[in-house]
Amino acid sequence: MNLSCTQICSLLSFYINNKLNSQIKETVEDHIENCPVCREKYQALLQIKLQFVQAKEYLDGIESATINIDSINQEEDYVLVQNLSAYSDNELSDEDSLKVKKFVIKNLNARQSLSDIYELRNLLKKSFVKYESQIKDDYSKNVLNKLVIEDEIKRDSSSLKVASILILLLTSFTIGVIYLLTNLLV
């Protein structure tokens, strides 16, 4: 399979996350080995992924470091601490969200953790927006669609042959009937 640099670049994130079938994965690997431009883009994407992993670890570290578990007297408070991230993502029910709000108001460490979570989220959002604006076209979907279509064409080629033969037979039959009718009428 021969893919252009643009197509390879659009598949890099899928390659990094191991979301490609073996044939496409092998094509991407071969291309990265032989193309210095795509190899550089691949390494840049790996760095971005590493930064996101580090940001997540940082967030987890902030959450566990700024809230002193010894200061939490009740098991319910511990559950509330664990829900800070879900609260910041609006993933809690109204009742649980209200409990977390009350807890954050009472607990300075929880407020700081929540503030750090929001700060990190804004930083990630700004990075994403900046990166997204640098991309002129998103070819990922187009490349994957093209590969699926090519695969379907290869599979459907036998049915196309059968359909072509049927059309030829019907055409021949129709011509024969017309010929017979014209000879009978004359």
- Give the helices and strands as they follow along the chain: HHHHHHHH
Q: Tell me the radius of gyration.
A: 30 Å
Terminal CA distance reads 59 Å
Structural domains: how many: 3
Percent strand: under 5%
Mean pLDDT: 77
Uncertain regions spanning at least 5 consecutive residues:
66-70
The tally of helices reads: 8
Protein described:
The structure is a single chain. The protein is mainly α and 186 residues long. It has three domains: 66 residues, Arc Repressor Mutant, subunit A (Orthogonal Bundle), CATH 1.10.10; 72 residues, no CATH class; 48 residues. Helix content is 83%, strand content 0%. It contains eight helices and no strands. Helix 3 packs antiparallel against helix 7. The chain is elongated. It starts with a helix and ends with a helix. About 3% of the residues have low confidence.
Layout of secondary structure:
Blueprint: H1 5-16, H2 22-34, H3 36-66, H4 75-82, H5 84-88, H6 94-106, H7 108-134, H8 140-185
Spell out the key features of this protein:
Arc Repressor Mutant, subunit A, 8 helices, 186 residues, mainly alpha, 3 domains
Outline of this structure?
The protein is mostly helical and 186 residues long. It has 8 helices and no strands.
